[in-house]
Amino acid sequence: MITTLKNMSNAIRCLSMDAVQKANSGHPGMPMGMADVATVLFTKFLKYDSQCLDWADRDRFILSAGHGSMLLYSLSYLTGNDDCSIEDIKDFRQLNAKTAGHPEYGHMKGIETTTGPLGQGITNSVGFALAERMLNARFGDNLVNHKTYVIAGDGCLMEGISQEAITMAGHWKLSNLIVLWDDNDISIDGKISLASSENQKLRFESAGWKVISCDGHNFDDIENALNQAQDSDKPVMIACKTVIGKGSPNKSGTASCHGAPLGNDEIAKAKQELGCDWEPFVIPDDVLNAWRSVGKSGQDARIEWEKRLESSDKKSDFHKCLNPDLGKEFLTAINKIKQNASSDQNKIATRKASQIVLEELYKEIPQLIGGSADLSGSNLTKTNDMDVIQANNYGGSYIHYGIREHGMGAVMNGIALHGGFVPYGGTFMVFADYCRPAIRLSALMGIRSIYVMTHDSIGLGEDGPTHQPVEHLASLRAIPNLLNFRPADLVETAEVWALALQHKNTPSILALSRQGLPTVRTKHTDNNLSAKGAYVLSDCDGERDGTIIATGSEVEIALNAQSELIKQGIKVAVVSMPCMELFIKQDEDYKMSVIGTAPRVGIEAGLKMGWDCVLRREDGFVGMDSFGASAPADELYKHFGITVDNLVSQIKQRI
Fold first, then answer.
1. pLDDT at 281 (0 to 100)
2. Pairing, β 60-63 against β 148-153
3. Cβ distance 74 to 85 under 8 Å?
4. Residue-wise pLDDT tens digits, 61-85
5. Mean pLDDT score of the chain, rounded to an integer?
6. If DSSP codes are grouped into helix, strand and coil, which group holds residue 431?
7. Model-level pTM?
8. By C-alpha distance, which of 647, 435, 437 is closest to 547?
9. What is the reported pLDDT for 39?
10. In DSSP terms, which residues pair with 243 in a beta bridge?
């Protein structure tokens, strides 16, 4: 059997060398170094069925060290993934190929998450493992009982986000999480000792992990380590001592095989040394058949699970939980909130408005999982009925992430990717920068992670410029496939929450105010006026002299300016634009019916950058062009000229 395992792991090495060489680009060293570990994992431990790669109770395999993507692609082809042919392997890193330079979610079956930015995969994995435990708490071992396996390298562990991941996993005692550390002592620049002298084993142990060591090229030792990991009551890190580029006679163990093709001569020598002098992209039938048999080995377990699901009295709830379509029932609650808000016309902060909406949404959507980066009382992301998720008690629906914005975003992504839940998490908007890489990957993958970003402008007041976001809306609007919502009152807040939940393939930002805002939608409509991104909130009689376009807290200023202009005989319409991204996607007729042809002035307590999609060169803008300051909110708005008088002046200058 050892000989068979050796040939099977060498198949990974050969395909990886060949594909990288043909592409003249890639990272052969890591797949060659971790081939033995991956072979033992897939042949003896991983619960999966290559013929049904979306089986809900499968083990998840995540390649956090995404630069070694040929390891994953090789395994996909060898195990019989029908979405990965030998031609796909030959097309590695080519335009429109499923086999992209780094594994990309949605490109090929069996890729659980997009990895490449180091540290994201291992942190996503914490979300995967936590989601499994939460589902298990709801549906029991018969329906949910699987593990998440991760291959991570030194680069993953050097990135700061990995500390957030390790700490959270240890604190939550995620015993279903097993990390295989590719301990090869090499990074792009050379030896790890150039930049790090950490004891990674002690680091994991101090965070509450079980740590095991093995020789990453000894099949028995690897198997023994994985056996020890199966029944741990803690997350497990297995330190796999490996040689990068294993099999390459002149480049193994060096940085030269990390991120460059080996060259045809070196590949020939490597194959000779490995005892597999095979033609490029050719795997002998006996080796391929052995792998294909492994790919089908989980079929019986999957069929038995399907039978248990079919006979379970929780079958209907399970299917509902896994269905990304949340239905329309919750919209009744949304409309009730809107109707009451338009009637009561209270002045409240939109962060409080969000909490009011969440109180009702939580009753309607059991998949909703909330959280905050240690700002629950400020973000108002927790409702009265939400129980806190804790170690060994995963039946709740609220997560205390601690002061770990970046980790929170990546864990949310993992939860969303696992399936069964819709995660949202809160922090101050200025700290969107701390979790921006995770937000970007939410957008890249097209997943429904919802980021509640409160204290959205200088309106937060005395905390000063370090906490006052001025450039953040502009920078977040630069991310493709991300919806940035900035509602003006409780009515719009209810509407944008509905939109964030309905967009299954798009993450959302909810930019919410700290300060109280008046109700601007005083006439109820069941229609979601925010759905098209912008709408005429307050029109004028006859032809417009101008148009004011406002977002969030500045809609109030726009309406007050409109009243002042009417007194002066100037007719302007006020447009509320809670989501610029949705508005620019509308057809030209609708857009022009909203913003018109008359002079326009935009107002937003942030930078003008990005507003050129609705403002022409001759149009005006009232906002920020510097950082903020520490003072009460009203004084700050006056100091920076975000006032009725300035807005009136800007309109009059243009008509």
1. 98
2. parallel
3. no
4. 999 999 999 999 999 999 999 999 9
5. 97
6. helix
7. 0.98
8. 647
9. 98
10. none
Active site residues: 405
Q: Which residue, among 73, 162, 68, 46, has the nearest Cα to 115 in the 3D structure?
A: 68
Residues pairing with 63 in the sheet: 151
* pLDDT exceeds cutoff 60 at 1: no
Dist CA 347 CA 522 (whole Å): 12
What is the tens place of the pLDDT at every residue in 482-506? 999 999 999 999 999 999 999 999 9
E strand residue ranges, 594-634: 600-603, 620-622
Backbone angles phi, psi at 212, to 5 degrees: -130, 150
CB 234 within 8 A of CB 209: yes
- pLDDT value of position 392: 84
Strand (E) positions, 605-655? 620-622
Contact by Cβ (8 Å): 403, 539? no
Helix/strand number for the chain, H first, E second: 25, 18
What is the bridge-based pairing of β-strands 368-372 and 398-400?
A: parallel
Question: Mind listing the pLDDT tens digit for each residue in 523-550?
Answer: 999 999 999 999 999 999 999 999 999 9
Question: CA-CA distance, 132 to 129, in Å (whole number)?
Answer: 5
Q: Output the CA–CA distances (angstroms, integers) from residue 598 to 44, 478, 540, 549, in the order listed.
A: 70, 27, 13, 12
pLDDT in tens, 324-338: 999 999 999 999 999
Of residues 227, 122, 228, 218, the one with CA closest to residue 168: 122
**Closest-CA residue to 454 (of 551, 554, 557, 375):** 375
User: CA-based diameter of the chain, in Å?
Assistant: 90
Domains in the chain, please, with CATH? 2-304 (3.40.50.970), 329-512 (3.40.50.970), 533-654 (3.40.50.920)
Residue 322's H or E segment, with its range, is: helix 315-322
CA neighbor of 263 nearest in space, from 586, 435, 18, 624: 18
Q: How many Cβ atoms are within 10 Å of 479's Cβ, its own excluded?
A: 17
